[in-house]
Structures are given as structure tokens and as C-alpha cells.
Amino acid sequence: xxxxxxxxxxxxxxxxxxxxxxxxxxxxxxxxxxxxxxxxxxxxxxxxxxxxxxxxxxxxxxxxxxxxxxxxxxxxxxxxxxxxxxxxxxxxxxxxxxxxxxxxxxxxxxxxxxxxxxxxxxxxxxxxxxxxxxxxxxxxxxxxxxxxxxxxxxxxxxxxx
Length: 161
Hints:
Blueprint lengths: L1 H35 L4 E4 L2 E4 L8 H5 L9 H13 L1 H8 L3 E13 L5 E14 L3 E8 L4 E9 L8
Antiparallel strand pairs: 1-2, 3-4, 4-5, 5-6
């Protein structure tokens, strides 16, 4: 009888350890994975394009064109004036990169009354270079500066047999 209770206690402890492990996994690994894949690359018709960061809808909706945001020339000019003022972006533009896309980063705030305020707080500018490189430039419109540049390059080395 004592041995049977010991076996039950071992199984109980193993189950509790498994549940605790799953709880720690859910609390640490899943949010980290979500953060790291926020800037993932996915294929679309004209090659690889970066995900736009924080948007109102998940990236799956943007991929299939369910979220369409129209930007004005004034918004484009404001973003480009900030981008052109950054020396690192100037260097990329001088090295053959071209601006191919501008996407706003939209922030929605829900007030206590239920009123929703939507504002473009930033933008992601996509730069491409002759099918060999992509750069994603994040612009903070409120601070008026470039906050991040991610560059993905492709190089091919052909060797003769």
C-alpha cells in the first residue's frame, strides 16, 4: 500500500512539473517569438517585402490585401524629408538603393469613453537594390528621426567545377 501511494505521488509531481514547464514556456518563449517575428520577411509578387511592424491588423490580413491604407503626398514628403536627413540612409541611397514602398505605422488609442483615436506615429520605408538587397527603415514621425535600419543582402559566389 505504501508503494502504491509513492507511485501516485511521483506521477502527481511529474504532472505538476509538466504544467509548470508549459506555463513558463507560454510566459517567456511565445512573447519572445512573437516579438522576433514581427519583422519577418514574406514573399509577395515583386520579391521579398518586410512586414510593416505594428499595424492594426495581423500580418496575415496585410498579406492578402484586406487592410488598405492610402497615404497622401504630404505624408510621403514628410517621411522622405526625415529619411533624406539621415546620413546612414543617404549612404544606402548613394550605393544604389531606391525607395520602393512607404507604409505608415498606425496607432489606435481607445479612450475610457470608447472613443477611438487613430494616428500615424511612424512609417516603414522599404529600399531595394537591383534584386540583391533590401533595407527596412523605421521612421518616428513624432521625434522626426530614423530609429532603425534593417538590411538584408544577397550575394552569390559562382565557382567553376
